[in-house]
UniProtKB/TrEMBL annotation:
Chief location bin: secreted
Source taxon at top rank: Eukaryota
A GO BP entry: lipid metabolic process
Single GO MF descriptor: hydrolase activity
Protein name, as recorded: Lipase-like C-terminal domain-containing protein
Organism: Rhizophagus clarus
Record's keyword terms, sorted: Hydrolase, Lipid metabolism, Secreted, Signal
Length: 471
């Protein structure tokens, strides 16, 4: 994960591995040879993703473009891969905001209204920018797994709103393609099984698995062991002020220390200084968090955003855009029992035991009878039973609750060769894959044949989009 504050002098000389490779290749190029940069692709991990490039497998080999030319007979560079690291347990809103500033650069601004409503600080970490030239004229491809796909969908909706500052020129066309793999675009009943409720305030059952997982995160963030975070997980929840450093460092409340801290920022402003002073006072003690977490028991976290009722509300105001290419890869491992009409996972030695049991519960889930205004009626619940162990197949297809020719088109399997298949912008291109678990395509813990086919097809898909895009 990126550090909280970067040294300006170090930023000028610190290159990523991809940038270093591009730089070396540019030195070795013949002066008469023109080499065109392909549209970079951004990778977004899902819930509790470790934030490591290894999550996606050997992408350098997959996206190699040696001896490949475009329709103008120009040699193409290897496609650049950009890895973003939003909070792995944060809300869709917070994750989308963090991705924007990680790519564009600058200090994360969650917005005054949102931060006050949620109860956390307005400003987050500062980033140098992974691709500062990102704009509607220089868009990016995005690939997200699980919650990562839904995060990209949320990001595009925010780009179409007035959330980001005008001087950064936000626009929904900044996303050239959105590809979601095993993503709960309509939500998932699995989070109800783990502790979420239909309460509009986002309450969690106090002794559920999700509540204990949240307590672990609070202890982990309270201890704030820097070397451990750099090696394993960094939940990126600094704006919630959970660390003991902010709970016990009373000297930071002194006016001269606050001013000294804010003077280290690239652009100093009175508003930011005041926010820094306020956020130092807005801290949550460990005992308070272990008893009733203000972060977990609210609507500003990932488990709440993955509920069916939260996504139903979000999708009611969301829309697709005519210049963006949408594709979803849908996975499923369950089959229907002809007697009960429930779904059960197909037996496999490679299927982890927790995923097996979660699939069984997801395939037979019903909202309690005393649930006021359930998000899915009893008659419609059967649509949500087929699943990949975590997400219902119905939810992975697209955000719409009905299908039509002007909204989506469905195919079986994995695309094999992009040339004979026509792609269209503004329509959800759905590829259904049976006998594939939630982690069957991504993450690449081992490079299986199906995973190789997936990434090969995805590369061809991006090449085809770049050929069609005239921006």
């Amino acid at each position: 994960m990126p550090p909280e504050l970067f040294d300006n002098e170090l930023i000028q000389y610190k290159l990523t591995e991809t940038e270093h490779a591009d730089f070396v290749r540019s030195l070795n190029m013949n002066e008469d040879e023109t080499c065109v940069e392909q549209t970079p692709v951004v990778f977004v991990e899902g819930f509790l993703g470790p934030g490591k490039p290894a999550y996606w497998g050997p992408l350098e080999k997959t996206f190699s473009s040696s001896d490949v030319e475009n329709n103008k007979n120009q040699k193409l560079k290897n496609r650049r891969c950009i890895f973003v690291t939003p909070g792995c347990g944060s809300s869709l809103y917070d994750r989308a905001i963090e991705i924007f500033y990680q790519i564009k650069g600058g200090r994360v601004d969650y917005g005054e209204e949102h931060s006050k409503k949620s109860g956390h600080s307005r400003y987050g970490r500062e980033y140098p920018g992974l691709y500062p030239e990102w704009s509607a004229s220089k868009p990016l491809h995005f690939l997200g797994h699980s919650l990562g796909g839904v995060t990209i969908w949320k990001l595009q909706q925010l780009l179409a709103s007035d959330i980001f500052p005008d001087y950064l020129n936000p626009h929904p066309d900044m996303i050239l393609s959105l590809t979601a793999v095993s993503s709960p675009l309509k939500g998932s009943q699995s989070v109800y099984l783990l502790g979420a409720t239909t309460d509009p305030a986002g309450k969690v059952r106090p002794f559920s698995f999700g509540a204990w997982l949240g307590r672990f995160v609070h202890i982990y963030e309270y201890l704030d062991i820097k070397w451990l975070k750099s090696m394993t997980y960094d939940f990126n929840v600094d704006h919630w002020n959970l660390s003991f450093r902010k709970n016990w460092d009373f000297s930071s409340l002194l006016p001269w220390n606050i001013k000294k801290a804010t003077n280290t920022l690239i652009e100093e402003s009175n508003e930011l200084m005041q926010e820094t002073a306020n956020s130092m006072c807005l801290t949550y003690g460990l005992l308070q968090c272990l008893y009733k977490s203000p972060w977990l028991n609210c609507v500003d976290n990932a488990p709440y955003d993955m509920t069916i009722h939260a996504m139903k509300e979000a999708n009611a105001t969301s829309k697709t855009f005519e210049k963006t290419f949408y594709r979803t890869y849908v996975t499923s491992i369950s089959y229907e029992d002809h007697v009960t009409k429930y779904h059960y996972p197909k037996f496999s030695f490679s299927l982890p035991i927790p995923i097996y049991f979660l699939s069984r519960f997801t395939g037979s889930f019903k909202f309690p009878e005393d649930t006021p205004d359930p998000p899915v009626s009893y008659e419609e619940m059967y649509k949500w039973y087929e699943n990949d162990g975590i997400c219902p197949k119905y939810s992975q297809e697209h955000p719409h609750h009905d299908c039509s020719l002007d909204k989506c088109k469905h195919q079986k399997g994995l695309p094999e060769g992009a040339a004979p298949y026509k792609i269209e912008a503004g329509i959800w291109d759905v590829w259904e894959n049976d006998n594939t678990s939630h982690f069957g395509l991504v993450s690449v813990c081992y490079e299986s044949h199906k995973q190789r086919l997936f990434f090969r097809g995805y590369k061809e898909y991006l090449d085809q989009i770049d050929q069609l895009d005239n921006r």
